[in-house]
Predict the structure.
Amino acid sequence: MANLSYIDAITLAMKEEMERDDRVFILGEDVGLKGGVFKATQGLYDEFGEERVIDAPLAESAIVGVGIGAAMYGLRPIAEMQFADFIMPAVNQIISEASRIRYRSNNDWNCPMVIRAPFGGGVHGALYHSQSVEAVFANQPGLKIVIPSTPYDAKGLLKAAIRDDDPVLFFEHKRAYRLIKGEVPEEDYTIEIGKADVKREGEDLTVITYGLGVHFALQAAERLEKDGISVHVLDLRTIYPLDKEAIIEAAKKTGKVLLVTEDNKEGSVMSEVSAIIAEHALFDLDAPIKRLAGPDVPAMPYAPTMEKFFMINPDKVEVAMRELAAF
Amino acid sequence: METQFPIKRIIDDEGNVVDASYCEQLHGELAKELYYHMKRIRAFDRKAISLQRQGRLGTYAPMEGQEASQVGSALALGQDDWMFPTYRDHGAKLTFGAPMVETYLYWNGRAEGCVPPVGKNIFPPAVPIATQLPHAAGAAWAEMRKGTRNAAIAYFGDGATSEGDFHEGLNFASVLKAPVLFFNQNNRYAISVPIEKQMNSETIAQKAVAYGMPGVRIDGNDCFSVYFEAKKALEDARNGRGPTLIEAVTWRTGAHTTADDPSKYRPEDQGKEIVDPLVRLERFMKKNSCWDEAWIVEIEALIKAEVETAVEEMESYPKANVEDLFDHVFAKMPTQLAEQKESYLAHLKRG
């Protein structure tokens, strides 16, 4: 087992899949010679050449659209959006085309492509380099949305996404890229898309989250453990479609639920998680469902004081956990 | 196509006049005005990079090498015209009248930095690529409908020509005969991607043909050529002749942003032959007896003082107040957001 950063695990997953299957190729802005603005594709241009690591013209809509054409033909494209914030010109291609192809062709066609996009804040990226945009896509049947939290999950889920026969939006938290490190097996493995994962067993309260929020929750849980409060942490991993059973099970287990997302509070993925719990586990709850999220302002500001306020962190999660535990 | 769209220039690298038809218009006052602004925005730019390196400014997009394009085009504007800049066009903004301290504040992530002076029609810089082109068409068309003679200039780079919004914006403006100057700075790289990988067209100017508007290719490092071609296009626009696409061929001397390292993707000697636009103008001025050493010393001191004052002001600004983060989402604050703000203020009181 090697100790890898989150971004290295992503690079490794792409490299292994490209070695395994020559239908797999990458297209995106600056992904070739430069190796991507975050270096997620570093070394791949040298290893696989410019036909499989394509420095695309600056056109997100066409990067996805060309990918869709190649995917329907039978290739396995990995389209990189430089920042999730810049995915917007491609929304038409992703929603109107990629996620509708199987259904509208009565299963005659499908679109096996991955769209990778770094998202999230805490990197002094300002308004257009910090946003969480997953909720924009999280009610589009036909599309899967994966957000890994650890290097192990990132490798296994990205490999599964590349092999998936349907389009997968793969959001990577850019603050996690070099911050989060972990053991990654050298052998080939995949992780099933659509399955949440218990990252910590606990008895007193449940935290449901994804991405960087998982690490904040785990850190806060350590602090509460010292006071004898046991926290259960569920990592959604796939935020669309949700792992309903795992959510209900985790909520019922402790009867107290804290939902954590960095996205704006109103209309986030956590709103749906909350609805699932309300529908299926209301009478197992000992406290109202609690949400910790970003404020309902358009985007993360750049000024340090404001960025710090906007971001979720272990302290904020700890405070919310203690409030819930004391209910 | 390159022969159909030759690069127009008025002075060459040595500062010699190569288009005699402009001789009478190349007077000392114009040369001095162009030189002063180019010198000023370069000082702003170099200071910004140095502040960023010292951790006193956020990630910054340098524009060194593009001074002639930005100053020449901005000086061609009328006072009431509209400017649609990108994140690299702060040189044009400064020349058009954006205060230096606000421009530094913008690069320090302050919302105050996005507010142009009263009466100056400068849109907030566009960060998503090419999104401002349709805006320029819309604003210019509205001016036309109102019956004014005001026009709009939309700045964008070579990478932006690949986006749908570029094509849609040009087409729309052309159909509406909107008074827009689509001013492209082809600095030959979109981050790491060279123009040859961006498009299979020989020029950007030729794209104008598809939309039924004039396309002009100019030497973007020749400030005179930029100034006079921009003036002409704006004049056409004002007179109801619709939009023009200008491709100013220039060169980004430095990195895409302070977070980028061009040595990873640009050959070391590439661009070395390009004569600095300020040096080029200096050569012209020396050859035409409008180079005045005393004046140079004077403006250098003036610019140095302006930059220092602006930096001091920027740094003495009070820290961003988190309370302000909740404001201006809507004209009237929704209940949920008001609650979030109250909860924050209560949290502050509790300490």
Q: What stands out?
A: Residues 197-326 of chain A form a domain with the Rossmann fold fold (CATH 3.40.50.920). The CA atoms of residues 4 and 181 of chain A lie 5 Å apart. The radius of gyration of chain A is 19 Å.
